[in-house]
Amino acid sequence: MLMENGQDGQRFAVLSYEQVRRLDKVMNESVPINGRGNFPTLDVKLSDLVRVVRRKLEHENGIHVRDIRVNGGVASHVLSPENSAYNDLDLIFAVDLSNGKSFEKVKSAVLESLLEFLPDGASSRKQRISLASLKEAYVHKMVKVTEGDRWSLISLSNSSGRNVELKFVDKMRRQFEFSVDSFQIILDSLLLFYDCSNMTMSDNFYPTVVAESVYGDYQEALYHLRKKLIATRNPEEIRGGGLFKYCHLLVRDYKPAKEEQLKQLERYMCSRFFIDFPDLANQRRKLESYLTNHFIGEEERANRYTYLMILHRVVDESTVCLMGHERRQTLNLIEELASQTYYEEVLLASSKQHGVASQGSGGTQMPLELGPGAFVQFSNGYYYTPYVSSLSQYATNCVCNSTGSSRPSSSGASTPTSEGSTGSWTS
């Protein structure tokens, strides 16, 4: 899994017609950029957006664009769609950011580009809309890096989680985490085809599009993608160690390319993660943000608990750089989030089951209530949750005069309890 550096001549490959066709489909799909408040939703095609942004950069701000690329999950999907779903739409503009004013020019170019996608009814108000208002309405997040590397990121909001991420890169030493996310597809020839050709693409007439694996060996990285294998180079160089992404790949049934190097890789990842995020508050923010941004939709959300259990196992077994109490604090944090996630899944499943039973009996669907004090506890590797009968249509809370009694379930059995609970949540 820890691979030697490949030769530069192996980094590039020409896409097949089927791959170019998938890329063309992604570039010409309408992507909604959702506005906050009274701002309308912008329906944008990536092919249009990148051309407008490039024009704003070069013609109006004097910033030369060396090339434009698509990377991340979209690039992996284009190359091997059966093994690569994607959330964000990641675009890279290679630009010169050596001048300190360039960052502001880039931000202005992106925000001004959004004005061109306002629907017809709102276009008359363009002159009155400030760039600050556009930023508040459409930008999900902005990042600027100037120390060591030089790049900036502007993420445009999408309510379903499929954000459009525009990255403007001058220097970036580490551009990938694992071989399967190392692909970058150069869009310039495809954009030129859109501008110059009126003919429809076919297997006998399509542009030559080149892809690069910044992992270093294109064919090896593509083999890993198709066989669902995990490999990387120098994981200690990755911010956060690639720990969260590694556990996410395990959830998606990826396997280590070299089993004998598994523990070494996990120790590297854990060490770098705790170097970058040494305090518990930052660890919580980072983990909660990852769960929010990468487990979108009902199917993905159902994998959160499995993901947290895998992360718990890796941190527990492979952390060698922390004092015992520090390691325990992080494990408690993961247990707390896993407990909360499990409880939410139980509520959701019970609500669905209760709704089906109510509809089947012709009754009115009632909201599920577990009453005050309902909680989940973690102990000895197990999660305990209140028993909810699917036969009872109405839930009532019974207040007993006696003290210290356990709450009975509908079958008369007491809810399991244990020492060392990591937290509780009420309905």
UniProtKB/TrEMBL annotation:
Q: Which Pfam families does this entry report, sorted A to Z? A: NTP_transf_7
Extract the GO molecular function terms from the UniProt entry: poly(A) RNA polymerase activity; RNA binding
Q: What is this protein called?
A: polynucleotide adenylyltransferase
- Catalytic activity, reaction form: RNA(n) + ATP = RNA(n)-3'-adenine ribonucleotide + diphosphate
Record carries keyword Transferase: yes
Q: Which GO terms describe its biological process?
A: mRNA stabilization
What SMART domains is this protein classified in?
A: DUF1693
Top-rank lineage group of the source organism: Eukaryota
- Keyword Transferase present in the record's keywords: the answer is yes
> What is the organism field in this record?
Galendromus occidentalis
Please give the residue ranges the record annotates as the region Disordered. Answer: 404-427
Q: What is its EC number?
A: 2.7.7.19
Q: Which family does it belong to?
A: Belongs to the TENT family.
Entry keywords, A to Z: Transferase
